[in-house]
Amino acid sequence: MTRRVVLGGGLAVLAGTGGSAAWAYDRFLREKVEVSDVAAAEEAAGTSATATASPATDGAFTQTGYTSSTTTITLTTTQTGTGSDTVTWYAAEVQVADAALIRSAFAQNKFGENITALPSEMAADAGAVLAINGDYYGFRSTGIEIRNGVAYRDEPARDGLAFYTDGRVEVYDETSTSADALVAAGVWNTLSFGPAVLVDGAVPEGLEDFEVDTNVGNHSIQGNQPRTAIGVIGTNHLVFLVVDGRSEGYSRGASLPELGEILAGLGCTTGFNLDGGGGSVMIFDGEIVNQPSNNGERATSDILCVVG
Fold first, then answer.
1. Which of 171, 211, 260, 263 could form a disulfide with 196 if both were Cys (CB 3.0 to 4.6 A apart)?
2. Cβ neighbours, 10 Å, residue 228
3. Is there a single domain that holds both residue 298 and residue 256?
4. Is the CB of residue 229 less than 8 Å from the CB of residue 250?
5. Quick one: 143 and 227 in the same domain?
6. CB-CB contact of 178 with 143 (8 Å)
7. Looking at the 3D structure of the chain, how many domains does it have?
8. Is the pTM of this model over 0.90?
């Protein structure tokens, strides 16, 4: 089931309460378009795919990866444990020659709240070699959102993840800076979710107390859940990770500390949690790699992808 279906059912319950139903519809379902043509915004800023690092034309796919003159991707599948304790995850180790080859894409080529599309559709539109779901920015109105060099939202609220044009990827405190300052410093993309599950190679304490949102309709991110994360090995050297869950005997999901441990085992020193649950998905060469817990991909607001 999608988050929209769940919320839509809730609206039926609220139907007799008048204002409550109207509030819920406005908050969770009504599309609030802030930028109607993201591609045009990127063209105006000079940050479109053709204006920055043009995707390679010599790429070759295999069942376990992709190689081009600009990009190397290696896919691995790992399963640990047995029975109800089985955990299965999919990792894509990514190395790119230019940080601009890692891009974001928005649902329907728009920016705003409650605007969604299937990740596979966004990946196809972006010409993505590899994609994972992003931070589901459209479910909230807070956070700093810079995508492909364009600042779309400047509402600092939590720790974020910043991708720089020089290939660095770092966790940062949104409340200590601004979107304009980050763009001026060379930030290419930001993701606003969290928490950081790996810092200087160690799993931080207190992860099980973290909350992204406390508003109505938000699902807990604690306990064993399907997960999506970014891990940092080095400059222009990342891991895209999806841990499946909610399927006994195949994969129970992972806790936040376990997510950090998985990334550490993959050679990462920094790790950042993204939107998970039914939205966790990895797409490679146009195909869904993992087994989303919704028995299919869930519509969301954005993806992070590799186009090299």
1. 171
2. 27
3. yes
4. no
5. yes
6. no
7. 2
8. yes
233 vs 67: CA distance, rounded Å: 19
Largest CA-CA distance found in the chain, in angstroms, rounded: 60
Cβ burial 113-137 (10 Å sphere, 16+ → b, else e): bbbbbbbbbbbebbebbbbbbbbbb
Rounded Cα distance between 220 and 223, Å, is: 8
Q: What single letter denotes the amino acid at residue 199?
A: V
- Per-residue pLDDT tens digits of the chain, which is 308 residues long: 344 544 444 544 444 456 788 888 898 899 999 999 999 999 999 999 989 987 899 999 999 999 999 999 999 999 999 999 999 999 999 999 999 999 999 999 999 999 999 999 999 999 999 999 999 999 999 999 999 999 999 999 999 999 999 999 999 999 999 999 999 999 999 999 999 999 999 999 999 888 877 655 555 688 999 999 999 999 999 999 999 999 999 999 999 999 999 999 999 999 999 999 999 999 999 999 999 998 899 999 999 999 99
Structural domain boundaries, residue 2? 1-30
Locus of tokens 């909230």: 140
User: Do 54 and 119 fall within a single domain?
Assistant: yes
Place of tokens 């895209």: 240
232 neighbors 268 (Cβ within 8 angstroms): yes
Token digits of residue 268: 């990462």
For helices 3-14 and 19-28, angle between their N-to-C axes, nearest 10 degrees: 170
